[in-house]
Each structure stands twice: as structure tokens, then as C-alpha cells.
Design brief:
Elements lengths: L3 E5 L10 E4 L17 E2 L7 H7 L6 H13 L2 H13 L2 E5 L8 H11 L5
Parallel strand pairs: 1-4, 2-3, 2-4
Helix pairs in contact: 1-2, 2-4
């Protein structure tokens, strides 16, 4: 099993990133698609548009946002297993655009992925 890590899409790509997956529903501002060095843009695993808009990256909403996003992820088990299984064969970096590195959906997604087992 290789590591799964998170990284801002605005940070420089590196070899250690392995498989680079953007996990935002919207394309990040100021990033050119050819410069992103993505293996995949996974909009499906991102928070719903309604939840994302409600959260608005406000620290006081993060606890409730986290709970609601975890609930949304329960409906995406197959996709979670697919993502987790990518890390079986190579390092995986989940990319996000949020400015705040301590309150963002990628942290929650990483936590959920770390808690689930591999599907045979």
C-alpha cells in the first residue's frame, strides 16, 4: 500500500506525487489544464454544489460541513474504494484548490479513505 496525501493544486508538481487526482468540483482559478499535470479530475467525489456553497470556507461552518460531507461520501462507497485501490499500486495525491490548509474537504476525504479497508 502506498501513501495517500493531499496537496494544493497551486503547489509545484513533483515525482513523489504519483497519481495526481483533482478532487474539486470546479476548475481552480488561474491553473491551466496542461500545467496541472493531472491523471484525473474527479468531480464526483467532491462535496455537492449545495454543501460547497453553504460552507463557503467559513471556519465556523467546518464542523457541520465535515459531518455533512462524510454523509455524502457514504453514498459514494464504490468511488471511495476505487480511489483507495489506486494507492495499492502507486502513490496517490489528492489535489484541492482551497486556500486554507486546515479547513478543506480534501482533509475530510483523506480521513475517510484512511478509515476504509480495501475492497477485494
Amino acid at each position: 500500500m502506498f501513501a495517500i496525501k493531499i496537496k494544493r493544486i497551486y503547489d509545484e508538481p513533483s515525482k513523489e506525487d504519483g497519481y495526481r487526482m483533482l478532487v474539486d468540483r470546479l476548475w481552480p482559478r488561474g491553473v491551466k489544464k496542461e500545467g496541472a499535470h493531472l491523471d484525473e479530475w474527479n468531480k464526483q467525489i467532491a462535496p455537492s454544489p449545495e454543501l460547497r456553497k453553504w460552507f463557503a470556507h467559513k471556519a465556523e461552518h467546518f464542523k457541520i460541513f465535515s459531518e455533512r460531507y462524510r454523509d455524502e461520501l457514504k453514498e459514494k462507497r464504490e468511488e471511495l474504494y476505487r480511489i483507495k485501490n489506486i494507492a495499492v499500486s502507486k502513490p496517490l495525491t489528492l489535489l484541492y484548490a482551497a486556500k486554507d490548509q486546515k479547513i478543506n474537504h480534501a482533509l475530510i476525504l483523506l480521513s475517510v479513505l484512511q478509515q476504509i479497508g480495501l475492497k477485494s
